Amino acid sequence: MRVSEARRTRVVGLLAIACVALILLLNGKPAFTSASRPPRGISDPALAIQMARNPKEIDAILSDAPSPDREAMRIKVYIDFAFILCGAAMSIALARMFGGRLATAGAGCGITAAIADILENAGMLRILDIPLVQTRQPMVEAILVPAYFKWALVSIALAIFAALFLGSFGWLRKAIGAALGAAAALGFLGLIENALLLESGIAMSIGVALMVFLAWLREVPAEPRA
Questions:
Q1: Phi and psi of 212, rounded to 5°?
Q2: What's the CA gap between 194 and 52, in Å, rounded?
Q3: Is the Cα torsion angle 64, 66, 72, 77 positive or negative in sign?
């Protein structure tokens, strides 16, 4: 593996470590209370708030303001801003590692998804201090619409990078490709059945965790750049 290619691969591995650390923080404390009851079979309140369709669902997830669940959500949104930046950087690093137009398209989807995610988070922060009686449908849609765009773009990016990893040599790269491919498929299905987005996130996390080892394992590099 050439020095420049090894450096790009190591950057991907180091960003993967940062992403894994942030995923652990997002799933750690503060935890949501038992009063949080996400609707439509979505078990994770942080995901449920993204896909909430009306103020009634906001109430089921967060209760009325103020509430411990709203404060827990606020902290997780702040952590998510760091995860957004890390994810966007990861898409750029992957595009540099693989090269070619397809990888560039994947990075473009990843960056655009990050912008949608920022808009989604801004919408969440806007409603956290507002009582339910003042929470209007447009406020809910200011979260929901960017969330749908984000998940669609993330799924496209995952599908692109899955194809690139699966087309590479080496068991580790193919394992990463399989995990990202599963995440992409579940992500597309999750746009219809929102509960599946949690499984998509789990599969994506597995793929990212496997990328950690790219920083140290010297596998055969990807196919020559187009």
A1: -55, -40
A2: 10
A3: positive
The DSSP string of the chain is --HHHHHHHHHHHHHHHHHHHHHHHHTSSSPPPTT---STT---HHHHHHT--SHHHHHHHH-SSS-HHHHHHHHHHHHHHHHHHHHHHHHHHHHHHH-SHHHHHHHHHHHHHHHHHHHHHHHHHHHHTS-GGG--HHHHHHHHHHHHHHHHHHHHHHHHHHHHHHTSSSHHHHHHHHHHHHHHHHHHHHTTSTTHHHHHHHHHHHHHHHHGGGGT-----PPPP-
Cα 61 to Cα 58: distance, rounded to the nearest angstrom: 5
* Distance from C-alpha of 58 to C-alpha of 69, rounded to nearest angstrom: 11
**Tens-place pLDDT, residues 104-150:** 999 999 999 999 999 999 999 999 999 999 999 999 999 999 999 99
User: pTM for the whole thing?
Assistant: 0.91
80 contacts 95 by C-beta, under 8 angstroms = no
User: Dmax over Cα atoms in the chain, in whole Å?
Assistant: 61
Is-contact 72 25, C-beta < 8 A?
A: no
The token pair that represents 80 in the structure block: 């998510």
